[in-house]
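Sorry to interrupt, but I need a hand with the structure work. Could you add the entry underneath, on a fresh line?
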Amino acid sequence: MTRLVFMGTPGFAASVLSGLIDEGCEIAAVYTRPDAPAGRGRGLVASPVKQLAEKYALPVIQPRSLRKPEAQDELRKISPDVIVVAAYGLILPQAVLDIPRLGCVNVHASLLPKHRGAAPISAAILSGDEFTGVSIMRMDAGIDTGAVYSRSMIPVLSWDNTGSLTQSLGIIGSMALLDVLPQLINGTIEAVPQSSEGATYSPMISKEAGRIDWSKSAADIWRQVRAFQPWPGAFTTWEGKLVKLVETFPAPNQPKAAPGTVVARAGEGAAIGVATGDGVLTIRKLQIEGKKPMTGEEFLRGARGFIGAGLG
């Protein structure tokens, strides 16, 4: 049986690992990022991949870097035939790429060469892409520049956000990988080099990227809200408090107020309308600092003076 090492960290990667487990693959070790502080108590929390690996009693290794010789020596001792990588979060140096006889295979959540980099799912939504997908590629020393074994495409729906697309693409990625691996093992598949034409790069997202600029169009802000849900969240401020927008949609009617002004209740359910640089953004669900998410109607019941206010 082919000996496999898996490297991944978030929920997307856990979906891919789950598919390998269900298929009965021989997983010699699971690599994931070190436990990280989370929550109000800032206690250390294991990644979704680590939690899944421990559930199935798979060996877990958590180096802070794969550049150190001792980490590379440990991997050589495991002697994998192939390394599968999915949203791992650490760079694999050439010395690591050279270890498995069948190479290192990456499950990347975009239609390469578009949206290479750390945040391809958010980037697809921000760009207004009608379609996205998963690429299975042979890794090289570049960032998502390796030759591609397969691409699987799905539509980006108007209600999709990064959370929902991550779930869908995790399933698609798992299925695509399980289709490619037997062909790779049997030597019946060829990877096709990527074209540099149309290549884009999606860098890691910072928390500040969620701050809303109300001078942008309602459509742009709507995409921002979806792209940064659930993290870091698209946010604005009101009376010094942070307000996260959870669910919105753009309305074509032109505002008669400065961008960022709450203009009126708009639509069914007493949703909130906010003037933008082009159009009105209707807010169906939001979350004020220290509170649970609520509908626009629920929020307005306890927020007198919100209509007509300026959001920062």
